[in-house]
Amino acid sequence: MLEHRIADACEISRMLTRISTQIIERNKGIGNLVLVGIVRRGDVLARRLATELEGLEEGKVQVGAIDITLYRDDLKLAAEMPMVQASSIPFDIDGKIVILVDDVLYTGRTVRAALTEILDFGRPEMIQLAVLVDRIHRELPIGADFVGKKVPAAKDEIVDVYLEECDGREGIFIKKREEKGDEK
């Protein structure tokens, strides 16, 4: 299947720097922030954002990760038993500004599941959403506060984010969704 690159490693780095600056401006620093990434690529991006934030401001930003698998509303539709990873938020989120981080925002269902799980950990002052790619289309009324790139991909297209830590390569790609019966 042919994929078209819409961002390379340098562009992803610039997006994360821009998002970090916007987070600092909106929240008047990093003093009350914590980052929570959605497993798998969201938690990698959250760690990268923490490094960026700490490079721009004095202080340390705590980073956690959540696996929303068991909170998904489509879990019963899965053909196989999903592989669940442990969520890890080893700090108190009560009264904190939680920046929820994910790679791609599409329908809003993943974010809805993540919000539900975060609230099981405590009561933050506020939850903001940072995504690398916003696909625009929604099934739920959820929007990102911080966006690296808006990509109005068609419903028959897939937007893939590859990160060196997970995939051994870096970039954002778009490709046509395979039709049933197409060979891989």
Automatic annotation (TrEMBL):
One example of a Gene Ontology biological process annotation: regulation of DNA-templated transcription
UniProt keyword tRNA processing, yes or no: no
Annotated InterPro entries: PRTase-like (IPR029057), PRTase_dom (IPR000836), PyrR (IPR023050), PyrR_bifunctional (IPR050137)
CDD domains: PRTases_typeI
EC number: 2.4.2.9
Record-annotated Phosphoribosyltransferase domain positions: 11-158
Catalytic EC class: transferase
GO terms, molecular function: uracil phosphoribosyltransferase activity
Record motif PRPP-binding, residues: 98-110
Keywords: Glycosyltransferase, Transcription, Transcription regulation, Transferase
Catalytic reactions of this protein: UMP + diphosphate = 5-phospho-alpha-D-ribose 1-diphosphate + uracil
Leader sequence residues: none
Pfam hit, one: Pribosyltran
Similarity comment text for this entry: Belongs to the purine/pyrimidine phosphoribosyltransferase family. PyrR subfamily.
HAMAP family registered for this protein in UniProt: PyrR (MF_01219)
Function of the molecule: Regulates the transcription of the pyrimidine nucleotide (pyr) operon in response to exogenous pyrimidines. Also displays a weak uracil phosphoribosyltransferase activity which is not physiologically significant.
UniProt name for this protein: Bifunctional protein PyrR
Organism: candidate division WOR-3 bacterium
Origin organism lineage: Bacteria, Bacteria division WOR-3
Chain's gene name: pyrR
